[in-house]
Design brief:
Number of domains: 1
Number of helices: 4
CATH class: Mainly Beta
Oligomer: single chain
Helix content: 10-25%
Order of helices and strands: EEHEEEEEHHEHE
Radius of gyration: 17 Å
Distance between the termini: 16 Å
Strand order of the largest sheet: 1-2-8-6-7-4-3-9
C-alpha cells in the first residue's frame, strides 16, 4: 500500500513538495507503525535516525501508556527490566537542545521528545532517546481558544502559541494534546498504524502506567 505523507498542521510547518522526508518503521508486538521525521527539527531527526540505525531501540518497551493521552518508549533500561523495575529514567547519556517550532503541534499521532520538568530543565532540552506518540482526544474550538488564551497569558511573544484555522480543524476532527504545544519538541508524525497506537494506549496498566503485557519494538529506516 502506498504511503500518503501527512504534512504537519500549521502553515509555518509545511514542507516543500520536493523535500525528502525520512521515514521510520516501528514494528511492535502489537502491530506496525510508520512515522515521518520533520526536517524542521534536524537535531532530533538526525539523532533518531542514528539511534534507529544502531539498533538502539530494538527490543525495548513502550513502558508507559495513558489512554486519551500518549504512549512512551525509548528507555534502554526497559530492554531487560522485570515488572518490578521503575522505568523512564534511562537514556544515551546526553540531551538535545529544544527544537520547539511554530506549527509543529501535538495532533494525534505526533512523535515528540520526552524531557525533564521546567524547574530542572529551563531550556527544555530533550532526553536523548525517549519519545512519546500522542493519542490525545478531540477538542472543541471554544475549548481550544480558552486553552490558547490561558497558556499565552504572561508569556513573551516568542513562546506564545497561535492556532491557524486548519490547526483548530485538526484538533476538532483528529484530536491530540494541545496543552503540550510550545512546551515539548515535536519532531515527527505517525503515517500508518494509528490503530496500533490506539491498541497500545488501551492496554491494561499497573499503577505506574506500565502495560501489564510487554509491548516491545524494533525499528528500521525506510531507505
Amino acid at each position: 500500500m502506498a504511503l500518503v505523507l501527512a504534512m504537519p498542521i500549521g502553515v509555518a510547518a509545511q514542507q516543500k513538495a520536493t523535500e525528502k522526508v525520512a521515514l521510520v518503521v516501528i514494528n511492535t508486538t502489537a502491530g506496525r507503525m510508520v512515522v515521518e521525521l520533520y526536517n524542521e527539527t534536524p537535531l532530533h531527526r538526525d539523532n533518531f535516525l542514528k539511534l534507529v540505525r544502531e539498533g538502539y531501540y530494538d527490543s525495548t518497551l513502550f513502558h508507559k501508556a495513558i489512554p486519551g493521552f500518549m504512549i512512551q518508549g525509548g528507555d534502554p533500561d526497559s530492554r531487560t527490566a522485570d515488572h518490578d523495575t521503575m522505568l523512564g529514567n534511562g537514556g544515551p547519556g546526553y540531551t538535545l537542545p529544544a527544537e520547539i517550532k511554530p506549527g509543529l503541534y501535538h495532533r494525534k499521532g505526533a512523535l515528540a521528545a520526552v524531557r525533564e520538568p521546567d524547574q530542572d530543565n529551563p531550556e527544555r532540552r530533550s532526553n536523548g532517546s525517549q519519545f512519546y506518540l500522542v493519542q490525545g482526544r478531540k477538542w472543541y474550538a471554544d475549548d481550544l481558544a480558552k486553552l490558547e488564551d490561558q497558556r499565552n497569558e504572561g508569556r513573551p511573544d516568542s513562546l506564545q502559541v497561535h492556532y491557524a484555522p486548519e490547526d483548530v480543524r485538526t484538533y476538532e476532527l483528529e484530536g491530540g494534546a494541545p496543552h503540550l504545544d510550545g512546551n515539548y519538541t515535536v519532531f515527527g508524525q505517525v503515517l500508518e498504524g494509528m490503530d496500533v497506537l490506539d491498541r497500545i494506549a488501551g492496554l491494561l496498566c499497573d499503577g505506574y502506567d506500565r502495560p501489564l503485557t510487554d509491548v516491545r519494538m524494533w525499528m528500521r529506516v525506510m531507505e
